[in-house]
Every structure is written in structure tokens, then in C-alpha cells.
Amino acid sequence: MERRIDLNTNQRRAVVVLAVLGFLLVTGIIYLDKRAAYTANLDQRTFNLALVGTIDSLAPALLDSHPEKVLAAAMYEGLVYYDEESKSIKPLLASDWRYSSDGKSLTLNLKRKISFHNGKRIEAQDVKKAWENSFSTTKEWANISLFLSIQGSQERLDGKSAEINGIQVIDAGTIRIQFNQPNAAFIFMLTNPVFWVYDTEDQVEPAPGSGPYKIKEIKDNKEYILERNEKYHRGMPALGGIKARVYANGSEALAAYQAGGIDYLDSLPLNHLQSLKDNPQYKKLLITKPLYNVYLLGFNVNREPFVGNYLLRRALNYAVDRDLIIDEVMGGSYRAANSIIPLGMSGYQRDMRGYSYDPEKAQELLEEAGFPLGEGLPPLTLTYNQDDGHQMVVESIAAQLAELGVKVQLQPVDWKYYKKQLEEMSLSFFRMEWTADYPDPDSFLYSMFHSSKVGMGNYFNYHNSQVDKVLEASREEVKSQQERIKLLNRAEQIIIDDAPALFLFQSSAAALAGPNVEKLQLNGMQMIDWYGVKLMDPSVEKV
Q: Contact at 8 Å (CB) between 435 and 192?
């Protein structure tokens, strides 16, 4: 009897052990099968992209909103690209290039055997046609201005010529650009979307490009499905495809991300940013990046009370506590700007002498300017495009200037009217935010402060012959990038001393990646090289 009891006990133990082993075996098989299926499909799974805003067009010449540019960057590319790590231009569709010794021409050789998405081989004639088509169809003056240093561009703009004769096809693999004046910055300008290359002869919309992904389907301008370009010239793209969903606002997009299934959310609402930074789950997935951007208040230096009074302009610069505004109004998403060239861009100098918060210095300069404690200074009318964020910024600045004795009247207007007033130079004190059109200091200094750009970026009515000469010399310097940057820094210091603006902030991008996303990097232009993005092998814990 006793022996029978031991035998039953051993049998029960054996059954339990076998059951456990069987369960582990089945679980292991399911796990391995599941893992194998997941990892096997990593290069096939569609990447889910959430964009905030609107998409009206993906044509390179018509790109306006940030969502348009981010998505189009997966489909199109230019002759060169900017490598942020080395801060230099690298080949893309072009294999190499060279400036003439006088800086008045730039010759680029194309890589051969690269095709558009429709299979057509890309040749120099296609580049010329794409550029001329973009020049003719773009609606943005900023895009048009990028062409104006090219011979014949003004004639084409005026309708006097059917082509831009300064864009010359030497042979199927070589294109040459002839300039009116030397332009060492032009190789950087070629990274702008208006110089992306596409097939103008194909009637499909959007036109075929040569990027790592190509359009497959568009649903109501809200959902865009891109498939992999399996013949991409840099190699097989890592993602099986991209499905982009466009959301009307950041809060809606963030809720969709938090619900799961989104691999990248490109824009975050400022009022949620701090809580995301404090949340352990999202903190490690948060991507922040200082952008090539400057936020300022401009002075029209040819209008009262700013004309001829750099002491007043400097006084106002010293009177504003930028960090206070960043912390209390902007959710920490900006940084105080001590220069015009932004952090991260070639030529940025941490020790650049700019303006810090110094109310005592501000009072001294205000008195030297002839307005002790603000006496005799008429109220300043500060005009800005109406927006809740801008409203809070200008209210804070107005309150701080009031402490100096300077009265500020706020004038919010709608965007179209505001833009028209800027271009007509009708405003004396105004909000302005400038984002680089290309990743080079020339995009800030020449575009905003050269006297030839008055009304076209130089809304300050700023004329300084010394600055003009230094900026022109920088464009003539095609042999040494180091020497060119030195010239740009010299011009920057003169401009800051002249204080044609109240320099305030540099903005930062904030985005969220999914836990399985790898090699997604934002650059200072807030763009992504989609070829490098992939979904990483999940860990055991994540399966």
C-alpha cells in the first residue's frame, strides 16, 4: 500500500513535469515562430508616419508646409546633400563638381545609370528642365530668389526668354551654371527642394522622382502610401514602405501616437512637451533638434524712432529676458540666441558677442539715446501675425519693455496682410521668424541683411556698405570654406553691433519615434534622410 502511494505520487510528478515541458516547448515554438515572422517582415512592414498640418502638393516647386517637405523628401532628391556631421556638401545625383577660378561658374558631373521611378535614365537635360519648370511654377519668392544669381534667370522671369540660359547642358552627364556674380553659396542652395530633380515629361502627378520611395496611393489628401523603390541607386531602402497620415492638429496626432501603431510623430504640441519630457515612457523616445532658425523683432532702420539710433536699438536688446519667455511661454522649446548664425550650423560661434539680459545697461543706453526712463519716446507699435503663441511672446516683451519706461502698442494682423506690409516695408517694429532656405550662414546673412535684398528678406531696410562688401567677398571665396566662414563671421558681428533687430530665440524641433525605430535622424532643416531609416530587430522582451 505504501509502495503504491509512492508510485502514484511519482506518476503525478512525472505527468506535471511532462506537462510543463510540453507547455514550454509549445510556447517556445510559438515564440520562435512569432519572432521569425516579425523579424522576417521587418524589411516589408510599412512605416507609419504621423504628420501635423496640411498637404496640398508634393511637387518640389510647390512645397510650402513642413509636412509636404518631409514626405516629398522620401520621393525626390537633388544633385547634392548636406552632411551635418562634417558640415559639408556631399554627392547624391552628382558625382563631383568644381567652381571656376573666378567663382562665376559651377560645373557638376552626374552619376550615370540612375533612373527616375518610371525607369527613365536621368541626364543633364532632365536636370535643366526640372529646374526651369520649378522656377516657372513656384509661388514663393524665396524660391525664385535662389535662381536670381544665375545668368538669364531675370530674363526668364520677365518673359523675355523661354529658358534660363545660364543653366547649360554640356553633355548627357554634365551641367554647368553660369552666374552674374560669383556665388560660393550656390552649392548649398542646391539642397533646397526647388532644385530637386523630377521627370517633367511624365504626365503622372506627382511627377516621378528618384528617391528611395515612390507614391503608390493618395486618399483624400489625408493618407499617403509610398512603396519602396527597389532600384534605388544607393541600395535597397530598409523600409517596406511608408504610410503617412495627416492630422489637423498636434493634440489629435499625439493621441493617435499614444494609442499605438505610429512609428514617428513629426510635430508635438508645445503645451504637452514638458509632460512628455517628464514621462519615463516617452522621454527616451523624444527627439529634439535645434533648427536653423531665428526668431526676432525687426526694426525698420529708416523709420522713426529707429533711424540713425543704434543706441536705442541696442537698449531694447538688453532689456528683454529671453530665458524667462522660453521657460514661461514657450515650454522650453526654444533657446536664447546670442548670434544670427544658429547653433549647429557651420560658422556658429559660442563666444559671439551678442546681447544678454542687462536692465542696467539697457537704461544707460536708453539715456544715451536721448530717452531717459523712456521720456520723449513715443509708443512703439509692434505688428505681428496673429497667433496665440506669438501673442504670448509679444505680451511678455511689451511688459518687460514697460519696466524700462518704453510703451508698446500691440497690433495683431492676419498673415496675408502682415506679409504684404513686410514686403512693402510699411512696418517700423515687427515680429519675424527666419528659417534657412539652405544649410549655410549665407542664407541668414546675405538673404536678410545685404542691401540688394531689401523688401525680399531684408525687411529692416538695412544698408551697410561695409557689410555688403564683406558678404560679396564671401561669395567670391570658392577656394577655402574656412576663409569664407571667417568673412561671414565678420559680417555677422557688424550686423549685431548695428542691432537692426531685437534678436531673441532659436527654435527646436520636437518629435516622437516609436520604440522599434532606428537610424531616424532630424537635421537642422528638420528633414529626414528616409533611406537610412529602418525598423530594428525587437528584443526578446518586446516580442
A: no
